[in-house]
């Protein structure tokens, strides 16, 4: 019987795994929104998920739950100090405001280099030496190297010598890298690289597709000659075994000019040393092509290489999907948006730490790797790969990190869950140096666009969930600026248009919104963000800032400033009208064997009454249907 129940639970998500949760009960804690002097004024219910299917988490979201790592929590709306209403937006109906359009145009101006920013000069200098992988064709042959570029710097036509010296130094570093990898012998005195410019007259004589060739170097031939002389010395010692063989053939096949050129090009592709050029090996020559001209000529090759570079970024072997922002075409800077499954990456953690310390003034001792992993990396969601049948998007369902990279520099990371009906925004952290780009707002616009784009691959994927909306906290009202949005009724779990809900929330913090659902919608109200100045957002100490568009703040079930609500108080939760009180079919996990609660009745003796109260409380907060699908673990 236990095996049958396990199979039933596993199939509840359409073969997408099994949900196993344990109940933490209700907790009181200090409120990060209103800073209430009354102590533990924030009241919520908590669960810990060992595993959770995307279908079950979607249904939990639609009952007012959210997650922080593997901890699930739901505010007790009728008693908590700051009622938190789940808010969502249908992506296809989204209508950007003037402010949101301004943020998008601001990013476009930054990418094309026309935005007058207050950014530090060294910030822009860092971008100048960052990398973007590209791929090109040479004489009809496939490129043998990805390309390091800095699309922010254009060639200074008045100082070509400076660029030639710069590229020469880059090649010398690549040679040194090859020595360290023992490709070349460290005992030889190897020649220094020399780069020459390609004159306009010579460009006119080049075959089609090479008109953008700007610089070239024959260093590979010089290296091969040096290695050949070294081989010649060995020949004198061993006799004339090499006589009658061509100079190039005297070398091992991997050390011919052609192969040496390819090795140097690959080495350059792994360094931050080229400046505004594509680099390619061709018959032993290292050629540097103008990136601006080549980009438009070989867009397809560039996209292929971007996918290659992004999939290996920081050694991440998990599936990674890349898209270049549409506004990047022809720009001086390139923005890449990389979507990959949730995993720990040192670069992301360092950005998170810097963000928390500079923007939120967190205590450095509390911004640790373990806390970061619990909050933003660990996830109970069971990953669902793409099925290519229109039911799952190409990236799959699960927990993801969406990183924003400008010219190779990580500037922001959005932590999101992609579920059957929505993209749920959980948290966003960004580089404080790029605060002038309003990356919080910009990432929200990108996430909405992502939902629109992926409806083609998954018809059920229609909504963008923005986390919790707290009308009683003025600094949280910005979420309603993404219109037209809906709020979840805390009692009947029906969605109510924000324009209908707002007048009621102006009168009372806690409202059964579905009581007013059928009323005629009133005319659109002014954008909520217009009522709150940027200065107010900057002064907020809360993590839900307008410029750091996040789903929710960190919720730690083990935090010291919290208190477990008594069993008697916990049992007073009002049961939604749409639920019945039947608990017999609740799925109970006892020592690894899931059983229906009704099959346990009469077998537990004195402990049965205690268990019955726990199960009743659990069914109240998750709903009857979910209680019959998810395994309620008793250990």
TrEMBL record:
Domain of life: Eukaryota
N-end aminoacyl transferase N-terminal domain ranges (all copies): 29-102
Region feature Disordered, mapped onto this chain: 1-22, 521-543, 558-577
InterPro entries, sorted: Acyl_CoA_acyltransferase, Arg-tRNA-P_Trfase_1_euk, N-end_Aminoacyl_Trfase, N-end_Aminoacyl_Trfase_C, N-end_Aminoacyl_Trfase_N
SUPFAM superfamilies, alphabetized: Acyl-CoA N-acyltransferases (Nat)
Enzyme Commission number(s) of this protein: 2.3.2.8
Organism: Eucalyptus grandis (Flooded gum)
Family: Belongs to the R-transferase family.
Function: Involved in the post-translational conjugation of arginine to the N-terminal aspartate or glutamate of a protein. This arginylation is required for degradation of the protein via the ubiquitin pathway.
Calcium recorded as keyword: no
Official protein name in the record: Arginyl-tRNA--protein transferase
GO MF annotation terms: arginyl-tRNA--protein transferase activity
Compositionally biased region (Basic and acidic residues): 531-543
UniProt keyword terms in alphabetical order: Acyltransferase, Transferase, Ubl conjugation pathway
Domain N-end rule aminoacyl transferase C-terminal: 347-489
Chemical reaction(s) catalysed: an N-terminal L-alpha-aminoacyl-[protein] + L-arginyl-tRNA(Arg) = an N-terminal L-arginyl-L-aminoacyl-[protein] + tRNA(Arg) + H(+)
């Amino acid at each position: 019987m236990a095996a049958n129940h396990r199979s039933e639970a596993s199939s509840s998500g359409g073969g997408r795994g099994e949900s196993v949760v344990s109940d933490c009960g209700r907790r009181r804690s200090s409120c990060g929104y209103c800073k209430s002097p009354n102590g533990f004024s924030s009241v919520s219910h908590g669960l810990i998920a060992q595993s959770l299917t995307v279908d079950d988490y979607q249904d939990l979201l639609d009952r007012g739950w959210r997650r922080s790592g593997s901890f699930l929590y739901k505010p007790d709306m009728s008693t908590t100090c700051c009622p938190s209403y789940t808010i969502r937006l249908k992506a296809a109906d989204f209508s950007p405001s003037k402010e949101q359009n301004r943020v998008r145009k601001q990013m476009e101006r930054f990418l094309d280099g026309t935005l007058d920013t207050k950014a530090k000069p060294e910030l822009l200098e860092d971008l100048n030496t960052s990398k973007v992988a590209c791929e090109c064709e040479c004489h009809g042959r496939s490129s043998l190297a990805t390309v390091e570029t800095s699309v922010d710097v254009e060639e200074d036509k008045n100082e070509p010598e400076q660029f030639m010296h710069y590229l020469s130094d880059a090649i010398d570093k690549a040679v040194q890298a090859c020595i360290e990898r023992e490709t070349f012998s460290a005992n030889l005195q190897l020649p220094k690289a020399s780069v020459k410019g390609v004159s306009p007259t010579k460009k006119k004589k080049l075959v089609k597709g090479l008109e953008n060739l700007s610089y070239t170097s024959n260093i590979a031939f010089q290296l091969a000659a040096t290695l050949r002389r070294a081989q010649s010395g060995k020949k004198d010692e061993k006799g004339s075994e090499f006589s009658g063989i061509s100079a190039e053939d005297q070398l091992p096949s991997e050390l011919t000019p052609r192969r040496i050129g390819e090795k140097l090009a690959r080495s350059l592709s792994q360094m931050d040393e080229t400046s505004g050029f594509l680099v390619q090996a061709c018959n032993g020559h290292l050629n540097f092509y103008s990136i601006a001209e080549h980009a438009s000529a070989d867009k397809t090759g560039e996209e292929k290489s971007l996918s290659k570079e992004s999939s290996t970024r920081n050694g991440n072997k998990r599936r990674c999907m890349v898209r270049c922002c549409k506004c990047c075409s022809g720009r001086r800077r390139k923005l890449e948006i990389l979507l990959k499954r949730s995993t720990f990456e040192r670069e992301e953690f360092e950005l998170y730490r810097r963000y928390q310390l500079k923007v939120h003034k967190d205590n450095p001792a509390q911004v640790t790797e373990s806390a970061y992993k619990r909050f933003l990396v660990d996830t109970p969601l069971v990953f669902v790969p793409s099925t290519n049948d229109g039911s799952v998007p190409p990236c799959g369902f699960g927990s993801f990190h969406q990183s924003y990279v400008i010219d190779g520099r990580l500037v922001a990371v959005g932590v999101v869950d992609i579920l059957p009906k929505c993209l749920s925004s959980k948290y966003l952290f960004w580089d404080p140096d790029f605060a002038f780009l309003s990356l919080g707002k910009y990432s929200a616009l990108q996430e909405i666009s992502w939902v629109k784009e992926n409806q083609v691959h998954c018809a059920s994927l229609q909504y963008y969930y923005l986390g919790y909306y707290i009308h009683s906290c003025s600094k949280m009202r910005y979420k309603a600026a993404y219109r037209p949005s809906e709020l979840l009724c805390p009692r009947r779990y029906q969605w109510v248009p924000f324009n209908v809900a707002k007048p009621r929330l102006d009168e009372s913090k806690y409202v059964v919104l579905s009581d007013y659902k059928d009323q005629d919608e009133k005319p659109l109200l002014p954008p909520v963000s217009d009522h709150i100045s940027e200065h107010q957002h900057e002064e907020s100490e809360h993590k839900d800032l307008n410029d750091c568009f996040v789903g929710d703040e960190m919720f730690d079930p083990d935090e010291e400033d919290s208190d477990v609500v008594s069993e008697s108080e916990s049992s007073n939760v009002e049961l939604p009208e749409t639920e019945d009180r039947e608990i017999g079919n609740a799925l109970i996990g006892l020592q690894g064997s899931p059983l229906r609660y009704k099959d346990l009745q009469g077998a537990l003796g004195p402990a049965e009454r205690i268990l019955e109260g726990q199960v009743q409380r659990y069914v109240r907060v998750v709903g009857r249907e979910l209680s019959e699908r998810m395994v309620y673990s008793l250990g």
